[in-house]
Amino acid sequence: MSDEDVASRLREICLNLPEAVEKPFGGHTAPTYRVGDKMFAMTGEDGRSLTFKAGPGVQDALVGSDPERFFVPPYVGRNGWVGARLDVEQDWDEIAGLIEDSYRLIAPKRLVRLLDERPIA
User: Fold this and answer.
1) What would you give as a GO molecular function for this chain, any one (predicted)?
2) Domains of the chain: which residue ranges?
């Protein structure tokens, strides 16, 4: 999958969540996805990784079970965030689920309720 296809797929997953926006972080140019002013997913400057928030134990489970696909990212890893390598084959349904979980941890309760009320496709 080309870098452009990966970026498009991530954008589609993230911006499909209620009130999610794409906005760079600080002086970086890489896409960062936010709800309100809080980040729930960010890509690396080189487009080869994705970082997202995860619940307790998820980081250890993902990195421990598949270190080729997942890693502990610098800076935010100590707070439970997880890195996913985008330059290896990924299960995009799993990535979408992990992004949605991150969103749920960050978003206000009213937006999580909207997400829960969406019809199942």
Assistant:
1) DNA binding
2) 3-111
pLDDT tens digits for 1-58?
A: 677 788 899 999 999 999 999 988 777 778 899 998 899 999 988 888 999 999 999 9
Q: Give the sign of the dihedral formed by CA 29, CA 85, CA 51, CA 98.
A: positive
- Report which DSSP code applies to 17: S
pTM exceeds 0.90, yes or no: yes
The percent of the chain in helix, strand and coil, each rounded to the nearest 5, is: 40, 20, 40
What SS3 class is residue 100? helix
CA separation for the pair 112, 106 (Å, rounded): 9
